[in-house]
Design brief:
alpha+beta, Immunoglobulin-like, C8orf32 fold, 2 domains, nine-stranded antiparallel β-sheet, five-stranded antiparallel β-sheet, about 20% helix
Length: about 325
């Protein structure tokens, strides 16, 4: 099974001092039978105590408060992880939506609920689904065809969207990155009553040309009867195997944000993110992104909100 060495640095810089930065991070590997953490170190500016809890979705979430005045905050994760999934996915193509209803629990019901309530947008989603869905299809086939539809009909373009881009806006320009494609796929699957969840993590394809390689990545997991949660990556039109490393799951990106928080002070801010993925053969893939951020309005003692700047868009 492959072992990956992942180095992830999130760095915030301010043009004047801020203080009392209260933050929440989800950069810990998700605990399930698809991966094994061999070593993980998290280093944060000022070495604050980090209180770790397990949230509603089973993610490890760390909370800390950086009280002293500072002009820079760096969150560094050094992870060595072994993925345990198979290199291919075998699906039971005989299991349909009728059987899925028998497995629905209260938790799964929540993951069937759409975030869309505008009739026009609901109609757009239904129109797209009807291009590949026919009654009687297996759940696995529906998920596979949905991922293929997004891969074929949406363009992968960095910089055209951000973390606040809505599904309606993504449908309008039919372009975006993995975060956008995951949100569209969730709405399409949920419109058919298939419980689906957003997944945050990394893709480690050993330089084989996959979109989003080496950066923080996003995909979806759908509940398939008899199998449980199975991942599909619409950005690359593949089932998730042993080259995806999972950090967090939830209803959408906001449940899985790598870092978010608040602080006191007025400052012009900048965010940079560095990700390095080392492979067993010694090769390393690196990516560095800088995000321009608007200054937080208010007075010197106002509370500035970091959720937007902390939410690095997943590529």
């Amino acid at each position: 099974m492959p072992v990956f060495n992942i180095h992830h640095i999130t760095k915030y810089e301010y043009d004047r001092p801020i203080k009392e930065s209260v933050n929440e991070i989800r950069i810990y590997p998700f605990a399930d039978n698809t991966q094994e953490t061999l070593d993980h170190q998290v280093n944060i500016t000022g070495h604050p105590d980090v209180f770790i809890i397990q949230d509603y979705w089973g993610n490890r979430s760390g909370m800390f408060n950086l009280v002293p005045s500072h002009k820079e905050m760096l969150i560094e994760s050094k992870l060595i992880i072994r993925t345990l999934s198979q290199s291919t996915v075998s699906l039971n193509q005989q299991v349909g939506l009728d059987i899925l209803k028998n497995e629905t629990s209260s938790d799964l019901l929540m993951l069937e609920l759409s975030r869309i309530n505008e009739m026009e947008l609901v109609a757009q989603i239904a129109e797209m689904v009807n291009k590949f869905y026919t009654p009687g299809m297996s759940v696995g086939s529906i998920v596979e065809k949905c991922g293929d539809f997004i891969f074929t009909n949406f363009k992968y373009i960095k910089g055209i969207t951000n973390i606040e881009t809505t599904v309606a806006e993504i449908l309008e320009h039919r372009s975006g990155v993995c975060q956008d494609f995951a949100h569209v796929m969730l709405e399409m699957l949920r419109s058919l009553g298939i419980p689906s969840r957003y997944v945050s993590g990394y893709i480690c394809p050993n330089k084989n040309g996959m979109r989003g390689e080496g950066a923080t990545h996003a995909w979806i997991e759908a509940w398939i009867p008899g199998m449980g949660w199975v991942g599909n990556d619409p950005t690359n039109n593949v089932w998730v195997t042993n080259h995806h490393v999972k950090l967090a799951v939830g209803r959408h990106f906001n449940d899985c944000t790598p870092a978010k928080g608040t602080f006191k002070g007025l400052a012009r801010q900048s965010l940079s993110v560095y990700v390095s993925i080392g492979y067993e053969d010694g090769q390393t893939f690196e990516e560095f992104n800088t995000v321009k951020l608007e200054p937080v309005p208010g007075t010197e003692e106002s509370t500035g909100y970091l959720e937007i700047l902390a939410g690095q868009q997943q590529q």
